[in-house]
Amino acid sequence: MPVTDVAIDKIKDMIISGELAPGDRLPKEAELAQRLGLSRSSLREAVKALCLIRVLDVRQGDGTYVTSLEPNLLLDAMTFVVDFHRDDTVLDFLAVRRILEPAATALAALHMSEDDITELGALLDELADAPTVEALVANDLQFHRKIADGSGNPVLCSLLDSLSGPTARARIWRGLTQEGAVARTREQHTAIYEAIAAHEPELARSWATVHVAGVEQWLRSTLTQTDEAEPPDAEPAAAAS
Hints:
- Helix content is 70%, strand content 3%.
- It is mainly α and 241 residues long.
């Protein structure tokens, strides 16, 4: 195993064992390197790597600390990876969203407070009668983020947040090209909201499934038609750019 990986594992073990807790400051570099049996250069590389994935935080002039280790912080690294997706993987992201989002919506129907439900309804009321596609998608992102947050599960919420970017581009494309897509989105959002407000988890789950599956089905059909229309040596279409 590379020396840097050994160093990372040893710091990780200190955190997992409870020797270092969230918010704790790491011992000074020389002391920690000696304690772990590492060179200072290997320790520095390990600290850099753990800072990138938000496990450690180097504070200039103060020292190195364990972060809060909250799910939204640690899952930032996954969001970074998701940003490098290719257009031909958008369907994969939508498939994952179709699995996770109905579950989050069902949980929201059980756990969202009345104040949060009122705010969710207010989001729907913010849209003009004939919103632009950009305004609708921005509202859509807020709407689904509010529901994910209302699930009461911060890990699930963070996972859905990381999927927002690639699937948002597909939603914009659909809104621009499919007749009736804007009206359909508004109707489905209203149905999801009403199911949550009525505290009907299975109804909320069903509407969320219909909502996400509709985008996925449209994109799959559109990509198939695009592939069939192109000559064999043509460049592939940029599906959701």
